[in-house]
Amino acid sequence: MDKLSNGFMEEVVKACRPYTAQGEVIDHIPGLDQSHATDLGVTIITKEGDVYSAGEDDCNFSLQSISKVIILLMALEDFGKEVVFQKVDMEPTDDFFNSISNLENYEGHRPYNPFINSGAIATASLVNGSTVEERFQRILSFLQTITGDDEKVKLNEEVYRSEIKNGARNRSLAYFMESTGVLSNREAEEALDLYYRVNSIDVNSLALAKLGFFLANHGKISATGSQLIQSRHVRTVKAIMLTSGMYNESGTYAVDVGFPLKSGVSGSIVGAVPGRMGIGIIGPSINKKGNSVAGGQVLRMLSEKLRLNIFHDSTIV
Amino acid sequence: MDKLSNGFMEEVVKACRPYTAQGEVIDHIPGLDQSHATDLGVTIITKEGDVYSAGEDDCNFSLQSISKVIILLMALEDFGKEVVFQKVDMEPTDDFFNSISNLENYEGHRPYNPFINSGAIATASLVNGSTVEERFQRILSFLQTITGDDEKVKLNEEVYRSEIKNGARNRSLAYFMESTGVLSNREAEEALDLYYRVNSIDVNSLALAKLGFFLANHGKISATGSQLIQSRHVRTVKAIMLTSGMYNESGTYAVDVGFPLKSGVSGSIVGAVPGRMGIGIIGPSINKKGNSVAGGQVLRMLSEKLRLNIFHDSTIV
Amino acid sequence: MDKLSNGFMEEVVKACRPYTAQGEVIDHIPGLDQSHATDLGVTIITKEGDVYSAGEDDCNFSLQSISKVIILLMALEDFGKEVVFQKVDMEPTDDFFNSISNLENYEGHRPYNPFINSGAIATASLVNGSTVEERFQRILSFLQTITGDDEKVKLNEEVYRSEIKNGARNRSLAYFMESTGVLSNREAEEALDLYYRVNSIDVNSLALAKLGFFLANHGKISATGSQLIQSRHVRTVKAIMLTSGMYNESGTYAVDVGFPLKSGVSGSIVGAVPGRMGIGIIGPSINKKGNSVAGGQVLRMLSEKLRLNIFHDSTIV
Amino acid sequence: MDKLSNGFMEEVVKACRPYTAQGEVIDHIPGLDQSHATDLGVTIITKEGDVYSAGEDDCNFSLQSISKVIILLMALEDFGKEVVFQKVDMEPTDDFFNSISNLENYEGHRPYNPFINSGAIATASLVNGSTVEERFQRILSFLQTITGDDEKVKLNEEVYRSEIKNGARNRSLAYFMESTGVLSNREAEEALDLYYRVNSIDVNSLALAKLGFFLANHGKISATGSQLIQSRHVRTVKAIMLTSGMYNESGTYAVDVGFPLKSGVSGSIVGAVPGRMGIGIIGPSINKKGNSVAGGQVLRMLSEKLRLNIFHDSTIV
C-alpha cells in the first residue's frame, strides 16, 4: 500500500494524463473546449484534514450532473426518504442518462433513480422554497458552506443561458412527467429551471473533494461539527452513487474502483470513501458513456494503491 | 448497536416472520409448496467463527439463482476477469432476470451481467472440464468444501429434471446467444445443462451462511487457511452482488441494507459483510420481484441493529 | 350484395348500436360525456352524388386525430412527398399513438408515420403560412370547401383551450423532436399550436363523409371539378390510412374492412372506398385502442354487405 | 398507361437492373452467391391467361420468407380465421422480422403477425397432418398444384440442412413461445422443422407469378376452376401482405406500389393485383431491410406504368 503525499499525487496524474487522448471534450458547454483536452486535476481530503493535490486543480467547470447529488441531499433533508422515493425510484438502469423510454415503460412512470436526468428533475421538485430563486439560493449557500468557498463556487450565467437554450431534451422529460402525473405543470417548469441553475454552478477539484469528504464524513462539517444533512440520508446518497453514479459504467466502477462516485459530462467526478476521504477530479476529456477517461484511470490507481475498495477490507483471518 | 446472540436471532425471526404473509411460494419447483409458506430460517457466521441461528434453519431448498454466484467465482478463477467480461458485461439492468429483449438491443449482444439468466448461462460456458459432468463435479466439490457439507449439499435429481422440463425460457436465451455469436452451439447446449444442474443443488441456511462467510473472508477457508479463489475475484463478485444481486430491487437493498447479497426464487438469500460475517437466509414466500419478503426484512433489521451498512462506517470526526 | 338506401342504413345502425355498450366515452374532451354513450351516426356519399344517413348524424364533435389526415394532405400539397417524408417516415408501428420511445430508438429519430402524434406534429411544421393563425385559416378554409359547410365546421374554442391545458404529452413529443433536430425550437412551438387547433375543429358525420368522398374521388371537388389536392398525394394518404389509420388495430381493420380509414378518440371515423364512396361515422364509445366500437361494427357490416373490401374485387374467371 | 408485352417487360428489366448494384447478395444460403448479384427476373400472369417474362426468369432460389404466405393460407384453410388469430395477431410491427423483443413485451406474447419469423413458426403449428413429413407433403403438393410444376418446385435438401444448422435465432423464437404458452414443446419442435422445410422449397419467377395469380384470383385455379382456398382467407392474406409483406418497408411499398406483396431474403417477391394479375420477381441483391433493390424498382415501374395501385382506381367523376 502506497503512502499518500503530494509527490504520490503528481505521479498518479503523470501516469494517467495520457488517457486524456482517448476521450473528447464536449463543446456545447461554455468554458469547455479543446484547449482543456489534456487537463487533469485531482484533489484529496483525508479524515486527518490533510489536503493533497496535483495537476490542473484550479480549473473551474460547471457542476453538470454532479448537481444531482446536491439536489438529492437537499430533497432528502427537506422531505425525507419516503416522499422522495415515491416520486423517483432508487434502482439502477441500463438506459442512457437522458433516456425517455423508461419513463414511458416503467411501472408508475417514476424515473428509475435520482441520477438520470428525469430523476434529477423530479427530485428538484422536492426542494423547499417559495420561488425557484429561493430554492437555488438555499442550494448554492449549502454548497458554499460545504466547500467553504463563496467566491469561485457560484452560478455561471453563461452556462445557465446555454442550459436553457439547449434544454429541449430536459424539457421533453419534464413535460412527459407532467403527462403521467409525476409532476404538476408548475412543478415541471420550476424543477426544470432549478435543475438548469444547479447544473451551472462552477466548481474546481478542491470544491469537489470537499463535497466528497462531506459525504465520506456522513454529512458533518468537520470544522464546525455541524451535521448539515442527517447521516442516514448521506448513506442513502452514497449507496445510489455506487449503483448509479457513473452513468452506464456504474457497474464497472463498482468493480474496478469500489466506492461511491458521481460524474458529470464536464469531466468532473466526486468520490467518497466512507469514513476515510473525499476525492475531487476534473478531466474534461470524456468517453462515449460520459465519463472522464483519465479521471477514471486516476480512480483505479488510487483504489488499488491506497486500498480504498469497500468490498476488500482488511482480511479477517 | 445490538449484540449478536441466539436470543437476538430469535427476536429477529419472530419480528420478521409475519412478513411471510406478504409473499407467495412458487409452486413449480419440487420441494417448494404452500406447507413452507411461513418458513423463515437465518444463520450467521462471524469472523470470530461463531455461528448463530434461528427459525427453520434446517430446511433444504435448491440453490436456484444463487448458483450464479458459484458459477461466476469458478469462471473467474478458471479464465480470469478479462475473458469472463468479454462474454458478459458487469452493468446492472432494469430488465427482469429472464429478459431476452436486452440480448437483442444491447451493443455486442452481451448479457448485461452474470446475475441475470442469460449472463449466468454465458458464464457457465467458462468453467473448465472436458464434460458437463466433470464441470458440475468441480462446482459441487467446491461448494461442499466451502460449506464443509457433502451430505446435504448435493444434486436434487427431481429439481434437475424439473429445470430441464420447464427450461424453455433458458433454452431460448441460450439459442439467442448462439444466434449472435456469444456462444457456439455446443457451448449453448452444455452451458444450459450445467446451469440447470447447479440451480438444482440443495442447501440450507447454514450452507448459505458459510458461502457468505467465504465471500466476506475474501475467498479463504478459515479452517485450513486455503485461498480457494483469489481475493480480487471475490471482491469483483461482491461488487456485482451489491449492484445486481437482488433482481430489480438491487438498488433498494443497496440503500436499505448496504452490503453484498444474492437471492434466489426459492426464497433463499446469501449475504456477505466484507471482513465481518456471512449470512444465510431461507424464506420461501417471495414477492413479485423474486425476493423473500421476510428474508428482506431480516436483512433490514440486521443491518440497522448490527450496523452492517458499508456506506456507514464509524464516523470519522 | 345489399342495396344502399336510407332503410338499409337504419338497419345497420340498429344492428350495431348495442356495441356502444362495449366502449367508453372519454371525458376529458369538452362536448364529450356519458350523455353521448349510445350515440351512433353514419353518413355515406356515393359517386352518383347520393347521400344516405342514419342515427345521430347531426352531432358535432371535434376532429381529434382525423386532423392528421387534413394536415398531411396540406403538407404534401405545400412541400411535396420528398420533403414531407424526410421529416416523417411512412411505416406502420406497433407503438401507441402517443408513444415517445420510438422517437428515441428509431434511426434518424423520425416519427414512424404521420398518423401517430409525433408524426402529426412534425407534419404540421410543413404547412405554408407566415403565422400559425394563417396556417390554421388555410386548413380551416380547405376543410370548409371540402365539406361545403362554413357554419358547423369551425374551431371549437373550448376544445382548443383544453388541448393546450392537457397537452403535456404532445409538448413532450415536440421538444423531444427539437432535441434530436427534427424540428427547430420555433417549429416545435408553432407546429404544436397548429396541431391543437386542427384537432379542435368541429365536424359531424356528414362533414366526415364529404372528407371521405374527397379522398375516394382522388382530391377533386365533384360540384366544381376543382382538383384541390393532386391525386398522387391523395393516393399516398389513403395508403397510409390503410396501414396506420386505426391506431393499433390498423392491421385488423385492413383484414376485416379492407379500405382506407382514419379514426379519432372522439369516436369518429372517416372512410374512403377508392372510386366509390365516402363514409363518415360518429360513435363516441371507444375501446382501449381508441376506436369507436359500434363504428367499427358498422364498417364491418358495410364492407361485407356492400362488397367494399379492396382486396376482394369481382372474381376474374 | 403502357401496354403489357414482352418488349415492355424487357425495357423494365433493363431500366431496373442497374439498381442491383445498390444491394448485396446474402451468402449464407446455399445457391446464393455473388455470381447472382446482377440477376433480375420478372414474370407476369394476367387474368386473360397471358404470361410475360424477362430477365433471369429461369433461376431457382429457395422460397425463404415467401413460405409465410403458403403456411398462412394452409393454416387458415385448416383451422379458420378465429383459431389462427388467437395464436398470432394481424398487426404490423416496426420490429425486425426476426425480433424477439416483441414476444416479450406484447400483451399475450402473441407474435404481431404471421409474416415475422415468430408468427410464421406459430402459424406452422396450425397445419393439419399427423407428422411433420405429412404436413410438409401437403404444403409441397399444394404449391405444386398452384404452380403446375412438380419438377422444379421441390425441397432443396442443401438449403434445408443449412436452415437447421443456422437456425439458432428461430429456435430461440420457438422456445420463447413455448415459455409463454403460445406453443407446447412438441409444437415448437415440429413447427420449427416444418418452417425450415417450407423455407427450403425451390421456386423461380414463373412459380412466384403463378402463386401471385392464385392470390389475385381469390384462391381459384383458373385451369380447373377448383377453389383450393376459400376466397375470404385469400383476401385476409392479401390484406396482411399489404400491411406487413415487405419487412420494415411495408408502409413505403403500400404507398409507392399499392398492392399486396411478400418478399424473401433470397431476393424474391410475389405480387398480387386483386382481380388483375400475379407477379413473380427474383433479384438476389437485397438492401438492409431484406428486400430486392432492383425488384422493388420493377414494382414501382409496373405500378406506375400499368396503373396497378389499388388506392388509385379510375377517377369517379
TrEMBL record, chains A, B, C, D:
Gene3D superfamilies: DD-peptidase/beta-lactamase superfamily
Binding residues for substrate: 65, 117, 163, 170, 195, 247, 265
Key words, A-Z: Acetylation, Hydrolase
GO BP annotation list: glutamate biosynthetic process; L-glutamine catabolic process
Catalytic activity as recorded in UniProt: L-glutamine + H2O = L-glutamate + NH4(+)
InterPro entries assigned: Beta-lactam/transpept-like (IPR012338), Glutaminase (IPR015868)
Record keyword Acetylation present: yes
Keyword Phosphoprotein: no
Subunit structure of this chain's protein: Homotetramer.
Record-stated family: Belongs to the glutaminase family.
Name listed for the protein in its UniProt record: Glutaminase
